[in-house]
Design a protein that fits this description.
The chain contains two helices and no strands. The longest helix is centred in the middle third of the chain and has 124 residues. The protein has one domain.
Amino acid sequence: MNIDAAFMTAVGGLASGGFTAYWTVKTFYLKRQDELRERQRQELAAAQAEIDRQKAQRQAELDTYAEGKTKEYAAQRDFNHLMRQYDALSLNLTTLHELGDRRLDGMEDDLRDIKGLLQMLAVAVGQTETGIQRYLKREE
């Protein structure tokens, strides 16, 4: 029986040692898998944060570009508006200039007529030089 007991003890010891070795290896690899999963989660979170940062950066660039285009459009619209106002003012000034020229031409004709009538009146009265002509001579 001693041999059987010794054998059983040896087999029990081997089984116990084998189980202990198995359990040690299993827990070691399970711990390594957990560490690997945790590292993968951290890397995934870091990658997601980088992707979000890049998205935000791209969105900011798009917003800046859109704002620039909006300002460019507004500046072009304002410039075109000013050009239309300039053209309208130019047309108005031309019209006023032409109107003033016509009025001055009419006044010049009227003054010639008055001058002619005054000269005829002066000749009829007997004077060859009118008061206006004397005044103009003094001014010279």
